Amino acid sequence: MAEFSPEQRTVVIIGAGPAGLTAAYELVKLGAKPIVLEQGDDVGGLSRTDEYKGFHFDMGGHRFFTKVPRVEAMWREVLLEGLLRRPRLSRIYYKGKFFNYPLKPWNALSGLGVVQSVIIAASYLRWQIFPYRREDTFEQWVTNRFGRHLFRTFFKAYTEKVWGISCSELKAEWAAQRIKDLSLRTAVLNMIVKPGRTIKTLIEEFDYPRRGPGMMWKAVRDEVEARGGRVRTGCKVIGVKRDGSVIKSIVVSTNEGSEEVAGTDFLSSMPLTEFVTALDPEPGADISNAASRLSHRDFLTVCLIVDASDLFPDNWIYVHDPEVSVGRIQNYKNWSPHMVPDASMSSLGLEYFCSEGDELWNTPDSELLELAKREVETIGLASAADVRDGCVVRVAKAYPVYDTDYASYLDTLKGCVGGLRNLQKIGRNGLHRYNNQDHAMLTGMFAVENLVHGAGHDLWSVNADSEYHEEIREELADAPPASDAEVEEAVRDALSWVFAKLDKVALGMATGVVGAASLAAASLFLVAKGGAVVGPHLGLMSQYLPGYEASLPGAALGLLYGAVAGFCLGWSYAALRNGTLAMYKTRVERRAESLSLRRLLDYL
Ligand SMILES: Cc1cc2nc3c(=O)[nH]c(=O)nc-3n(C[C@H](O)[C@H](O)[C@H](O)COP(=O)(O)OP(=O)(O)OC[C@H]3O[C@@H](n4cnc5c(N)ncnc54)[C@H](O)[C@@H]3O)c2cc1C
Q: Which of 160, 231, 241, 481 has its CB 3.0 to 4.6 Å from that of 36, i.e. a possible disulfide?
């Protein structure tokens, strides 16, 4: 690979979200002068912070929480003292009541009352005894673990609000995979890394920039520009001109018309689906077909300014109640007191999950504001009369959807962009991956290392799994740093070692040989030793082994007896040990799974 010389290369980055700006930040530190093209008027992408009359609104509520040290280091380097440590409180609202989240069994049962609790317990038992044989859908998957009643109470309505499809249509794999990974991780760590120590997977606090995540990305933009890079907002990429497998330039649409931006290297965080359809010349029909099959889920936030200093203590509330259509409510002041310009006022963000172009998405802002006022009052969090003002922010392509066939279509698109030699796809929608901000940033960092040092990072594999590896690394802080592959291998080895099954027949045969040899050798030794009565003590074994005596024929019989008894002993020991270990493994995994399950909503 040709050496990277900043003066001779023009790196064009599409998207000024966390992935694109992180890449630009890393590049300017190396002396390069990248050009960032952003369609919006502001930077930060999904992690931006909008402002309305001095109130700051976060698009979703972004916890700054990571297990990736270099991401953490960049947050601190950029924000300095601007990063606050905040306590977390989030609850579930259901049928007029608030429940702790992550779920706490006694809190949930006491809130639901005796009758509901009995029904829930009965339903739980019923589904433990007679579970669905196959777990194809999300509904079946959760029901098998919680019972149908608890599923309907705490999962169904919210999940359907987020994804816009019935839980019986939502595939089980996604949640199952997520939970399985976490459970396995917890189980392994609890058992072999530091037994007895519970891993802090239930995060009780998080970091948050004083004025929301947008503060971070504005600061990064300023730094990039101060070092000679360019961040151009209002530039929507509409075309990607290529000569065979080499991209030559990007066509952007701006207020002044369209223009072409040439470059030598390209990083793109714009949605993968839109990128491939912008290619010029166009790729084949299979590519546009695959792109049309990958979808996203969108949402809108109705921001309300309320004349009240202290509405409720939560950072956010999950709204499960099907009587209202709001899915989640943010109380920005509890994320950071600096989100409001006046301490006597509060600001709320009512999040409605929808799909771009559907009825809710197209509802006029004035009607959405009225809807939000009504619903916040219905829930009892604020009085509609206290709402002074508000605005609506629509957020497109918030969630890449993992539906039935997405993996095969994604593979098709990966193949297409993989063939472009001077392109790297980065970020959440750029890779169509459910990446959080930290992993989106990591793809930007890795892309720069690939470009500058030929590091060979596979950006498609940066996801929650690396968090898993980081967590293990954290637990092994004293050990020298290991690569992801090494950690994974170590965990796999340790697991197979801890839970290795004993081969019953092999152990039986081994102990049989030892038994046979011992009894025969002991008999022969006593015969050789001789005496008035040969082997009086060993001879007593004839009481258990008919026909045995300390003599030459007895030694032959002892050989047989020793083999049979030894085999039975070894076989039984192996069977008992395997059974006990299997039970222990199931228990450890179940316990770990129940911990992860209690956080299920955080992954939705
Ligand atoms: C509701 C919600 C809550 C979240 N909460 C958290 C959280 O608590 N913690 C956390 O770490 N992460 C959270 N995330 C995830 C986080 O927002 C994303 O992981 C992160 O913003 C992804 O960064 P990105 O740069 O890959 O993509 P984006 O943020 O999507 O940025 C991509 C940029 O590309 C631009 N773009 C797209 N198309 C074009 C085009 N054609 N031309 C030019 N520019 C284009 C976009 O305008 C955008 O600015 C949350 C996300 C959502 C939706």
A: 231
**Shared-domain flag, residues 435 and 509:** no
Query: Is 66 close to ligand 1, i.e. is its CB under 6 Å away?
Result: no
What pLDDT, on the 0 to 100 scale, is given for residue 77?
Answer: 97
CB 327 near ligand 1, within 6 Å: no
Pocket test for ligand 1, best of 14, 253, 269, 301 (most atoms within 8 A of CB): 269
437 lines ligand 1 (CB under 6 A): yes
Same domain for 581 and 448: no
| φ and ψ at residue 56, rounded to 5 degrees | -105, 135
Q: Are residues 241 and 288 in the same domain?
A: yes
User: Which residue would you say has higher pLDDT here, 246 or 160?
Assistant: 246
Q: Which domain holds residue 573?
A: 504-590
What is the reported pLDDT for 547?
A: 77
Among 412-426, 435-449, 587-601, the least confident range:
587-601
SS3 405: coil
pTM value is 0.80
Residue 436 near ligand 1, beta carbon < 6 Å: yes
Residue 238 in domain: yes
> So what's the pLDDT on residue 145?
82
CA of residue 172 to ligand 1 center, whole Å = 25
Secondary structure (3-state) at 578: helix
202 φ/ψ angles, rounded to the nearest 5 degrees: -90, 95
For ligand 1, whether the C-beta of 440 sits within 6 Å is: yes
Q: Evaluate whether residue 219 is within a structural domain.
A: yes
Residue 471 has pLDDT above 60, yes or no: no
Residue ranges of E strands in 376-451: 387-400, 423-425
Question: What is the C-alpha to C-alpha distance for residues 310 and 73, in angstroms, rounded to an integer?
Answer: 34
Q: Which numbered atom of ligand 1 lies nearest the CA of 395?
A: 53
Protein residue with least CA distance to atom 11, ligand 1 = 437
pLDDT digits (tens, 9 = 90+) for 278-294: 999 999 999 999 999 99
Same domain, 469 and 512: no
Q: pLDDT tens across 107-123, in order?
A: 877 888 888 889 988 99
HEC string for 234-292: CCEEEEEEEECCEEEEEEEEECCEEEEEECCEEEECCCHHHHHHHEECCCCHHHHHHHH
Task: Give the residue, by CA position, lying nearest to ligand 1 atom 53.
Answer: 398
Residue with tokens 């579930």: 92
Check whether 378 has a pLDDT greater than 60: yes
The distance of Cα 135 from the centroid of its chain, to the nearest Å, equals: 20
591: pLDDT strictly greater than 70: no
Domain assignment present for residue 545? The answer is yes
Cα 43 to middle of ligand 1, angstroms: 10
Q: Residue 467 pLDDT more than 70?
A: no
Gap from CA of 293 to ligand 1 centroid (Å): 21
Do both 508 and 470 map to the same domain?
no
Distance CA 217, CA 222 (A): 9
Same domain assignment for residues 516 and 468 = no
Structural domains counted in the chain: 2
**In sequence order, what are the residues at sequence separation of 6 or more whose Cβ sits closer than 8 angstroms to the Cβ of residue 333?**
339, 340, 346, 347
Model confidence band, residue 490 (pLDDT cutoffs 50, 70, 90): low
CATH code: domain of residue 36: 3.50.50.60
* Residue 27 belongs to a domain: yes
Q: Which range is least confidently modeled, 96-105, 417-426, 546-555?
A: 546-555
